[in-house]
Write a structure and sequence with these properties.
The chain is mainly alpha-helical and 367 residues long. Helices cover 35% and strands 6% of the residues. The strands form four sheets. Strands 1-8 form a two-stranded parallel sheet. Helix 9 packs antiparallel against helix 10.
């Protein structure tokens, strides 16, 4: 009985063009992916609510990734931590300002969690940084605790971080595409971090379509975390050199999951947007909010090119091959789009990462 009914289900599914997710699951690159069972769902929590023991376990596992030799030998990488940063650099052009922005970073953070667990014995779920709580005041966030956190702001002209578990790490890559030894650096800008305020996150959560939501999130909430921490974190290419990157992107992923949960029957399959990312050009949204003024005491966003505005060299060097667009050849991102990981984990289609507990992925959030 069971084999017959499952055969019927497969036949029905195969003939239904309306079920691309099922087709991709059975024929796509991840058809051997284990299913997520309810008792296996890992619950991701805000960093601010973790116990010191939980914080230490996460930080120790990240230090462990920084001490493990590279397994993929991606461009410039010496450690597994570097492999992640290097993959992000190589893929930068196609995974930002494009429809796959949130899906790619969802999978990227998931594989980071997998690596912490597989390589370093981490047993928890990936935490996220509830940034609304620290908006306008990143400098005093408990995230930057020297013992139970990521260490503080950069100091001196080099902007190297001077305390915390990552103080002595030597990044092999960055800024940008450069292969270049340097410290983990930070230049926290509280006026930029104001864009992490709840009113900007809520504005995104109130959007009714995927296109409006994605563009909104890649604007203010995304910009606030990167620009608010500054230095390496604000570089679109090499930002995963600062481990805060992973808590920032888990936060944006939480916003997406929260938005999806408001209308799952539509939003678990709603995709679209430009298929060809091209960094700073033709982004359909605004990168820093201008419609809600910051409170008194905050000078607002730095003028483009003015003092305080970061300057990046985003020219891809000749030895970094332009990443290909795989799975959906048109101009619009679809559920068939293949999210490339360059070996960090198996490539996945967007349809496979739409639901955080839908099969391949297996986690949820505390909000
Ligand atoms: C996140 O921060 C907001 C304040 O901006 C707070 O209301 C909310 O409870 C926090 N969420 C969690 C899960 O701690
Ligand atoms: C970093 O190096 C300094 C100087 O050698 C040392 O005092 C400090 O304990 C080191 N920190 C870590 C987290 O290894
Ligand atoms: C920017 O990076 C490219 C590729 O690495 C390099 O050829 C170029 O000289 C750099 N430009 C500046 C202004 O540093
Ligand atoms: C895709 O975009 C390119 C460049 O803008 C354009 O020439 C082409 O006609 C578009 N193709 C489709 C199918 O819309
Ligand atoms: Cu990114």
């Amino acid at each position: 009985m069971a084999p017959l009914s499952s055969l019927l289900v497969s036949l029905l599914a195969a003939s239904a063009a309306a079920l691309p997710q099922d087709l991709v699951e059975r024929h796509g690159p991840g058809h051997h992916a284990p299913k997520c069972k309810p008792h296996q769902v890992r619950h991701r929590k805000s960093w601010h609510t973790l116990s010191n023991v939980e914080k230490k376990a996460y930080l120790d596992a990240e230090v462990c990734l920084m001490n493990k030799p590279s397994t993929l030998h991606l461009r410039g990488a010496r450690t597994i931590f570097d492999d992640f940063q290097s993959a992000h650099a190589t893929l930068t052009e196609i995974v930002h300002y494009a429809g796959q922005f949130l899906p790619f970073h969802r999978l990227f953070v998931w594989e980071h969690e997998q690596a912490l667990r597989r390589e370093c014995g981490y047993r928890g779920a990936h935490p996220y940084w509830n940034e609304t709580q620290d908006a306008g005041a990143f400098t005093t966030s408990i995230l930057l605790d020297p013992v139970y956190g990521f260490g503080g702001n950069g100091v001196g002209a080099s902007r190297c971080i001077a305390d915390g578990p990552f103080a002595n790490y030597t990044n092999a890559l960055g800024p940008g595409y450069a292969i270049n030894d340097h410290c983990i650096d930070r230049t926290i800008q509280d006026f930029v971090s104001w864009a992490a305020h709840k009113q900007y996150a809520d504005r995104c959560l109130a959007k009714s379509t995927w296109l409006d939501f994605w563009v909104c999130v890649e604007g203010a909430p995304h910009t606030a975390g990167h620009g608010g921490i500054g230095s390496q974190m604000s570089n679109p290419v090499s930002s995963p050199g600062d481990p805060i990157f992973y808590l920032h992107h888990a936060y944006l992923d939480m916003l997406w999951a929260k938005w999806q949960a408001q209308n799952p029957s539509v939003r678990l399959t709603e995709m679209g947007g430009k298929n060809l990312g091209d960094l700073a050009t033709e982004f359909p949204g605004e990168l820093f909010p201008t419609d809600i003024p910051p409170p008194p005491g905050f000078p607002g966003a730095p003028a483009p090119g003015g003092p305080g505005a970061p300057v990046f060299n985003l020219t891809r060097p000749w030895e970094v091959q332009a990443p290909a667009i795989l799975g959906d050849p048109g101009n619009t991102t679809t559920l068939n789009h293949v999210l490339q990981l360059l070996g960090l984990g198996p490539d996945r289609t967007i349809s496979q990462v739409m639901n955080t507990k839908g099969g391949y992925l297996c986690y949820d959030y505390d909000q």
